């Protein structure tokens, strides 16, 4: 399976390392034409406003919406979660607007409030290592959204069909289970989409 990492900003090499540790092939995606060659894509952390601007500059908004319409999985981590969300608190316009969630930017505070913790993640396991850096928070979820993990009763990971979102940075640990979960999603979607 070829898994893309949107290479406009963020920890691209780290995500590719974790994809490969989990058994996939990681591809840095810099051009929309590459979307035809991949089975799923990760939108990494960084600064969501900057990522949104770059996505508009390089025509990724419509291209990724079409990618999603084809049922191909997308995984947003930290700022990538914000990019996937339909609603961003205090902001009129969303970026991709695909996932039925409302998010709050920098909900866990500034850089100095960054921390690591272990999470119980539904469908994965206990003690999944998570790094929070100026992390967003999922404030509300729509009907079709499954909450996968909480931290202090606040939602930090969720799934809606072929869309996966996490407030934290799974790529900054040695724990590949979150990436393995995404690879399983990609595998499921490929099987569902394949002819009988």
From TrEMBL:
GO cellular component: cytosol; glutaminase complex
Keyword Lyase carried by entry: yes
GO molecular function annotations of the record: glutaminase activity; pyridoxal 5'-phosphate synthase (glutamine hydrolysing) activity
PROSITE patterns xrefs: GATASE_COBBQ, GATASE_TYPE_1, PDXT_SNO_1, PDXT_SNO_2
GO biological process, one term: L-glutamine catabolic process
Annotated catalytic residues: 78 (nucleophile), 169 (charge relay system), 171 (charge relay system)
Reaction(s) catalysed by this chain's protein: aldehydo-D-ribose 5-phosphate + D-glyceraldehyde 3-phosphate + L-glutamine = pyridoxal 5'-phosphate + L-glutamate + phosphate + 3 H2O + H(+); L-glutamine + H2O = L-glutamate + NH4(+)
EC numbers, comma separated: 4.3.3.6, 3.5.1.2
Alphabetized CDD domains for the sequence: GATase1_PB (cd01749)
Pathways involved: Cofactor biosynthesis; pyridoxal 5'-phosphate biosynthesis
Superkingdom field: Bacteria
Subunit structure, interactors included: In the presence of PdxS, forms a dodecamer of heterodimers. Only shows activity in the heterodimer.
PANTHER family given in the database record: PYRIDOXAL 5'-PHOSPHATE SYNTHASE SUBUNIT SNO, PYRIDOXAL 5'-PHOSPHATE SYNTHASE SUBUNIT SNO1-RELATED
Family: Belongs to the glutaminase PdxT/SNO family.
Name of the protein in its database record: Pyridoxal 5'-phosphate synthase subunit PdxT
């Amino acid at each position: 399976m070829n898994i893309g990492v949107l290479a406009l900003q963020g920890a691209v090499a780290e995500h590719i390392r974790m994809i490969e540790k989990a058994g996939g092939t990681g591809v840095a995606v810099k051009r929309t034409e590459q979307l035809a060659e991949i089975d799923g894509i990760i939108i990494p952390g960084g600064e969501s406003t900057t990522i949104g601007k770059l996505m508009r500059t390089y025509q990724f908004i419509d291209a990724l919406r079409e990618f999603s319409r084809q049922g191909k999985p997308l995984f947003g981590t930290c700022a990538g979660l914000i990019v996937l969300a339909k609603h961003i608190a205090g902001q009129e316009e969303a970026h991709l607007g695909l996932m039925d969630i409302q998010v709050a930017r920098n909900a866990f505070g500034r850089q100095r409030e960054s921390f690591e913790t272990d999470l119980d993640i539904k469908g994965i396991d206990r003690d999944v290592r998570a790094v929070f850096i100026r992390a967003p928070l999922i404030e509300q979820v729509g009907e079709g959204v499954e909450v996968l993990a909480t931290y202090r009763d606040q939602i930090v990971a969720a799934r809606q069909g072929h869309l996966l979102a996490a407030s934290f940075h799974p790529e900054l640990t040695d724990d590949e289970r979150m990436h393995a979960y995404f690879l399983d999603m990609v595998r499921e979607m490929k099987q569902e989409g394949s002819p009988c």
